[in-house]
Design brief:
mainly beta, Porin, twelve-stranded antiparallel β-barrel, nine-stranded antiparallel beta sheet, 3 helices, elongated
C-alpha cells in the first residue's frame, strides 16, 4: 500500500500542475506593502498591478523594495537599442530593487546593477525579445478601425445613404520605449446617397477620399514623408484629383495621451473636372495631424491640409478631417466623423465647399 501511495505521489509531482508562482511584492518607504504583479516602469514611474488596490503608478523614490520572479529587461537612460547589440548590452533577468538600486539576475552569468535614477525603462523580457527580433510581417502591428453607417427612407421620397471608412496605422517598432523607425498610414472613406421622388430628377451624392503616407524617422521627432491622395466628389464636379508628393515632418507634441505632427512639402496635383479640361498643378503642402486620448477611452483625431498652388494661384485647396470615437461594447465604438473639402475654383454651378458628417459604428483593430 505504501508503494502505491509513493507512486501516486511521484505521478502527481511529475504530471500534475506546477505549483503557483510566487506573487511580486512592492514595499513603500513608509512600510506599506502591495502584493500582485510588477508590470513595467517608464522614467521615474513604476506600474504595479495589486491584487487589492488594482493598477497603481508610483515614483521610484517612494519604493523601498521590489521583488519579482518574472524576467525583465532594464534599459538605461539614453541607450540606443540596435537589434545586433540588444541582447549583449541590455541586462535581462529577474529583478530585485533595494533602496535606489535594481539588481538584474540573468538565467546564466553575473548579476548586474542599475540605479533607479539611471533607468529609462523596465519592460517584460518577452516584449523586449520580440521587439528586438526580426521585423514583423507586413500584415502585423496594424491598428485602426472599420466604420459603417446607413440611412434608409421609404415614403413619397425614397432615399438611401451609405457611409464607410477604414483607417489604419502601423508604427515600427510599436513599443513606446523604442525610437520609431517608420510609420505607415492610410485612410479611406466613402459616402454615397440617392434621393428619388416621382416627377423629379434623382439627386445623387458620391464622395470618396483615399490617402496613403509613409514616414521615415531621422530622429525621435524629425521625419521625412511621402504621400499619395485620391479624391472624387460628384457634388463638386470633381471626377478625380490625384496628389503625389513628399516633404518633412516634425512631432511638436509627443505625450502618452496626445501627439501633434506638423508637415510641409511639395506635390504634383492632377485635377479632372466634369466638362472641363484636366490640369496639372504644382503645390505646397502645409498640414498637421493631432491625436488625443481622453477619459473613459474616448479618442479624438484631427487632420488639416492646406495646399496653395504655384502655377495657378487661384486653384488652392484645403481638407479638414475630424473624428470622435466613443467606446461602446468591447471592440465596438460609436464614431462621429466630419470631412470638409474646399476647392477654390470648381466648375461653374458647383459650390467650393463640401461638408460630410457621418455617424456610425466602428470595429477597432489592434
Amino acid at each position: 500500500m505504501s508503494r502505491f501511495l509513493l507512486l501516486v505521489g511521484c505521478a502527481t509531482v511529475l504530471y500534475g500542475q506546477a505549483p503557483p508562482k510566487e506573487p511580486d511584492i512592492l514595499i513603500f518607504t513608509n512600510g506599506e506593502k502591495l502584493i500582485g504583479h510588477f508590470v513595467k516602469s517608464s522614467g521615474s514611474s513604476v506600474t504595479f498591478k495589486s491584487d487589492n488596490a488594482g493598477t497603481v503608478t508610483v515614483d521610484w523614490s517612494k519604493i523601498k523594495e521590489l521583488h519579482s520572479a518574472d524576467r525583465f529587461a532594464v534599459i538605461r537612460k539614453g541607450t540606443e537599442i540596435h537589434k545586433s547589440e540588444a541582447a549583449r548590452d541590455i541586462p535581462v533577468g529577474t529583478v530585485a530593487v533595494a533602496g535606489h538600486t535594481i539588481e538584474v539576475t540573468p538565467q546564466s552569468g553575473t548579476p548586474q546593477t542599475v540605479t533607479t535614477a539611471g533607468t529609462g525603462f523596465v519592460v517584460p523580457a518577452a516584449s523586449f525579445e520580440k521587439a528586438t527580433a526580426e521585423g514583423p510581417g507586413f500584415f502585423q502591428d496594424w491598428h485602426g478601425g472599420v466604420t459603417g453607417g446607413l440611412s434608409l427612407v421609404e415614403a413619397t421620397q425614397t432615399s438611401q445613404t451609405y457611409t464607410a471608412a477604414l483607417t489604419m496605422t502601423r508604427t515600427e517598432p510599436s513599443e513606446d520605449w523604442l525610437d520609431k523607425r517608420n510609420r505607415t498610414l492610410f485612410d479611406f472613406n466613402v459616402a454615397y446617397g440617392k434621393v428619388t421622388q416621382p416627377g423629379s430628377a434623382d439627386v445623387k451624392t458620391e464622395i470618396f477620399h483615399f490617402d496613403f503616407e509613409r514616414d521615415e524617422y531621422l530622429s525621435k521627432k524629425l521625419f521625412l514623408f511621402g504621400q499619395a491622395d485620391f479624391d472624387h466628389n460628384y457634388s463638386q464636379g470633381l471626377n478625380l484629383q490625384q496628389l503625389y508628393g513628399g516633404g518633412v515632418g516634425y512631432t511638436l507634441i509627443q505625450r502618452p495621451n496626445q501627439q501633434l505632427d506638423l508637415r510641409v512639402g511639395a506635390n504634383y496635383i492632377n485635377q479632372d473636372f466634369s466638362g472641363a479640361v484636366s490640369q496639372g498643378l504644382i503645390g505646397i503642402t502645409f498640414g498637421d495631424t493631432y491625436m488625443r486620448k481622453m477619459a473613459h477611452g474616448v479618442l479624438f483625431n484631427q487632420s488639416l491640409v492646406f495646399i496653395p498652388t504655384l502655377n495657378n494661384t487661384s486653384d488652392y485647396s484645403a481638407l479638414f478631417n475630424a473624428g470622435l470615437a466613443l467606446p461602446t461594447y468591447k471592440r465596438l465604438s460609436t464614431s462621429v466623423n466630419m470631412l470638409d473639402t474646399f476647392l477654390n475654383d470648381p466648375p461653374a454651378g458647383f459650390r467650393k465647399n463640401s461638408l460630410q458628417l457621418s455617424v456610425g459604428l466602428t470595429y477597432v483593430v489592434r
